[in-house]
Design a protein that fits this description.
Layout lengths: L11 H12 L3 H21 L4 E2 L10 E5 L5 H10 L19 H5 L4 H4 L2 E5 L6 H15 L3
Antiparallel strand pairs: 1-2, 2-3
């Protein structure tokens, strides 16, 4: 169990801590985060009709968006956002630090070319609409090759 670090019993302290953390979740804050995510995605799609929001019409977490901007490699986007002080990723949190395309996208039927253009944006409790607007402005510059 637990990668042979612990003996046969479950990690009860971690389980209890997780249970307590889930009780602290504020539904209003989660709704605000989802509203910001939806605003981000809708604005990007209004600007550029070929942008793909992965899972847009599916049940998903309200704090993240996986955005494919065709013909703009994820690495180029990562560099531009990093230079502007915005941290994004090219895939799931469990694959951070890798340069491989998002395997989940390939498994979902997206081709490698589109998978290579995917970025993940996460929104937190402290994220503001102004920060989303800043992201959108930088994204427009990236999209336009500025």
């Amino acid at each position: 169990q637990e990668f042979n670090i612990r003996a046969g019993t479950e990690n009860l302290a971690a389980i209890q801590s997780f249970a307590m953390a889930t009780q602290m979740i504020n539904d209003n804050e989660l709704a605000k985060i989802k509203e910001l995510r939806d605003y981000l995605e809708q604005t990007l799609q209004n600007i550029c009709t070929d942008v793909i929001i992965v899972g847009k019409n599916s049940e998903r977490l309200g704090n993240s968006s996986l955005i494919i901007t065709p013909n703009i490699k994820a690495e180029a986007q990562l560099i531009q956002f990093d230079m502007a002080g915005i941290m994004i990723s090219r895939g799931s949190a469990c694959t951070s630090g890798t340069i491989k395309p998002n395997e989940n996208l390939l498994n979902m039927g997206y081709n490698r070319e589109l998978a290579d253009c995917a970025i993940r944006v996460s929104i937190g409790y402290n994220t503001t609409k102004n920060e989303i607007d800043k992201f959108i402005e930088i994204w427009k510059n990236v999209k336009n090759g500025i």
